[in-house]
Amino acid sequence: MSVKKYIIQFRILFFLCLLILGACNKQKEETIIYKKPLKLNFDATCTWLNDVENYNKKNYLSVFYTYYNQKIKEGKFIEASRAMEIVSLKKSSHVSFDKPFMNTINFYSKNYRNKVPAINASFVESYLGDYYTDKGEFAKAISYYTKNTLIPVNDYKSCYKKGDAYSTISWCYQCIGDQKSALAANYKALDYFKQTDQTNILQTLYDNFGGIYEAMHDYDNALKNNSLAIKYTRGEKYSNVYTYLFNRINIYDHAGQYDKMYALSDSTYHSFKKSGEVNTWIEVPLTQYYIKKLYHEGKFEESKNLLDELKPEVIALNSNITNLEYDVLVAEYEIKKNKGIKDTKLIKKSIPILLENRHFGKLRDCYSVLLDDAVAKKDYKNAHLYAVEGAKIQDSIASMEMANAVIEFDVKYKTKKKEQQIALQENTIQNKNTTIALLVSVLIGLGLIGVALVLLQKQRKLKKEKQNTQLYTKQLLEKTEEERKRIASDLHDSVSHELLSLKNTFEENAESTNKKIDGIINDIRSISRNLHPIMFDKVGLKATINQMVERTQNVNDFMVTAEIDYKGSLSSVVELQIYRIIQEALSNIIKYADAVAARISVIEYKSTIVIEIKDNGKGFNVQETLNNNHSFGLHNIIERSRAVGGEAKIVSDPNGTIITIEIKKHL
Q1: How many CA atoms lie within 13 A of 445 on its CB side?
Q2: Roughly what angle, to the nearest 10 degrees, separates helices 202-215 and 219-231?
Q3: Is this prediction's pTM over 0.90?
């Protein structure tokens, strides 16, 4: 029976199963929805503090402190907590973390928070988490936000608080490059926010999803989720809309879609200025992108004026990240205008802090501007160093292994949600004995079909592997004969011819004779090197690979780097096969990849040796290539890996190809 027929039967049985469940689920339990209170239980002062129009008034904080201190004095700690929560949320949204308010928060936490229910004091963790997020200390920020994930859910506020904590944790994980944890936290946030009646809250989650996909370099999905975030703002005129538009500019920037980036920067910047909103945290990054547009258009005088106007606002924010972004922007101006940065220390001093806090996005920007500076100054030694370090950071942001882990988690999460739905449906029909019996029968049928499909797929896979093995063996014999023919031809046409010529000129010209002898020696060495690396048994794997890398760069004008952390724990036979695998991979890259650079790494761990060959070429369809008649090189790598007890994995896309071989050590 064909696979198509199996699928048709599977769909019919599954549809019958759904009909049975639907018929027995008339009294299905409804998901609990926590509704936002129609009216906030605020007195006149708290209502005034909560009004967004009042935040920028000069007496805003004095009104708060007068009210707060009075309520503390009267022992009305609930009212005092409510006022402080309102102000802390306002200050966090405007990224305003002044020392007097921070001292008030800490004093409140130490002396009064135990006098109110935990939910009424949870704003302390939110504010401190926001503070450390602004400083780029994401590990500390996550530790504070995590405390709010322990809040028991029993009403709208607690449900919202918990969802908001997970959402912010997701964003922090994005910043440190842990996309798997970011996705996990964002899905948890989605679970809690969907239990409320405020669907516009979903805008933050879709914006987070956009950031995760952006980090994975999946810019299409990043833009789709960003569009959903903007859609869920539902006509909001202020901060959220501009925040998501700014994030969209970021996506265009990282995707290399600069025309769209410049156009959106221009329209968003002028729209924000026209709106009259006072929000330095939004204005500063929007202005920075607008300045980049001016750089692109060569309008350096106008950009210099904006940089000077922006400086007091950057200082007022007192944010490590914002300060660094401003320094990078000034450095870009100096490179474009003065052909080099006056003082690179401003950039370099931030690198250790960013590394410590795993803020890879900003590290990438630092190395990029340092690279541009070194090129402008013709300091090619440091330019190479910055290029290598920048490449390492880029790998940390979005390695293929991380992308696979995120995708794997995404599938697991969706599977788990389906299992939960099935469990809920089964609970509603526990007393339906006949239906249960029928359902079990259907499930058994589905299971049998599933087993049949798996067996059929395995059979096809084994057949294909057998065909590939036969093809490899055939090609191996053909290649062996071709190699023998090539060696014979080389010896006949090169060495034999030169020796004959030497014989005729030996007595005529001694200098010419010496040159011919040297040529013959080099030819013989070249032929011998192709057959077997002569010094391999003496110098070992590491030195031989380094020689191959150096020779490849010299002959092909092609940049290859090698990272070898290997202590010589394998036999020489296995080492030789590793050398041949790397040699074959490099040959394929040079012939087919259209790459400008490659990287080789051989890393020894406690129980395994991991070899990775990576290039930035045009990539190819791995499965399609393996199944055609012109894939001897790839099959050579796979079979040699199996011969030494290892396994080769080949991943390729338009950004390049990665070949990974993991060999287990015999301990």
Answers
A1: 17
A2: 170
A3: no
